[in-house]
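Quick note —
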Amino acid sequence: MKTTFIFLLSVVWFTLSAYAIDPKTLEIGAQAPDFKLSGTDGKTYSLASFSKAKVLVVVFTCNHCPTAQAYEDRIIRLTNDYKAQGVQVVAISTNDPSAVRLDELGYTDLSDTFEEMKIRYKDKKFNFPYLYDGSF
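Predicted structure written out below.
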């Protein structure tokens, strides 16, 4: 039984590693990759949506994480403080809501579904686009 388990585990690992995504780290100064993501404000955004910004700040965040929640007000202030200087902030949640464990929800009022992101966006009065990239 032990050998069978190891064999099955090896098969599962091999299968998962065959499909794993190995993203390439961008070089300093490289062009940002394009994207097309839904925003909690009902709009669809791409990299071109932010072409007028002198600087684009991309924050990868989520709803359920206490640390991410602790930074929300700071991100709102950052957006206010630097908007006049041509800085655009965009937040992107890359979490797959089905990957959030129940024990991770003990410290939050919302999970990471797109519908719950809309609630967070409205309740916190985010002054930046909050985009969803959580379904793979």
